[in-house]
Design goal:
With 150 residues, this protein is an alpha/beta fold. It has a single domain (2-148), classed as 3-Layer(bba) Sandwich (D-tyrosyl-trna(Tyr) Deacylase, Chain: A). The chain is 23% helix and 37% strand. It is built from three helices and eight strands. It has helices spanning 39-50, 66-69, 99-117; strands at residues 2-15, 18-23, 26-32, 55-56, 62-64, 72-77, 122-123, 130-145. The strands form two sheets. Strands 1, 2, 3, 6, 7 and 8 form a six-stranded mixed β-sheet that branches. Strands 4-5 form a two-stranded antiparallel ribbon. Strand 4 (55-56) and strand 5 form a beta hairpin. Helix 1 packs across helix 3 (99-117).
Length: 150
């Protein structure tokens, strides 16, 4: 599982002209699910992201987590994070889980992230053509791959 985590001042997701998710200060999380991802990956990644100390304290030092600041989050499925670009110029998405596998993993991640943050987490719509808008704060962007847990 791969995640791109962006600290935002605000973010939203629009599908067919309708805003389906909208937050102010918090995190926009783009999540790419691979065929081999497990419950262990879900639990580890959701806890890691919820507790990442990437929000400023009163001294402008990144010392606070999303939980600490009571921030909001949007999780957006993005199979393209699993792209392989080793050969040629057309990315291969063979590592990305098919919807039958990816959808329940994505949904389980969202539920576990809600448990970790003790808050409702907004989402895009799995498989939809989404327009994602954000004002990256910092900018702060972190990439985490569950294959690199250790």
């Amino acid at each position: 599982m791969k995640a791109v985590i962006q600290r935002v001042k605000n973010a939203s997701v629009t599908i067919e002209g309708v805003v389906v998710a909208n937050i102010n200060i918090g995190l926009l999380i783009l999540l790419g699910v691979a065929e081999h991802d497990t419950d262990e990956d879900i639990n580890w990644l959701s806890k890691k992201i919820a507790n990442l100390r990437i929000f400023n304290d009163h001294n402008s030092i990144m010392n606070h987590s999303l939980v600490d600041i009571d921030g909001d989050a949007i999780v957006v499925s993005q199979f393209t994070l699993q792209a392989s670009t080793k050969k040629g110029n057309r990315p291969s998405y063979l590592k990305a889980a098919k919807p039958a596998i990816a959808t329940p993993i994505y949904e389980a991640f969202v539920k576990q992230f809600e448990i970790e943050t003790c808050k409702h987490v907004q989402t895009g719509e799995f498989g939809a053509d989404m327009k994602v808008s954000l004002l990256n704060d910092g900018p702060v962007t972190i990439i985490i791959d569950t294959e690199n847990k250790i």
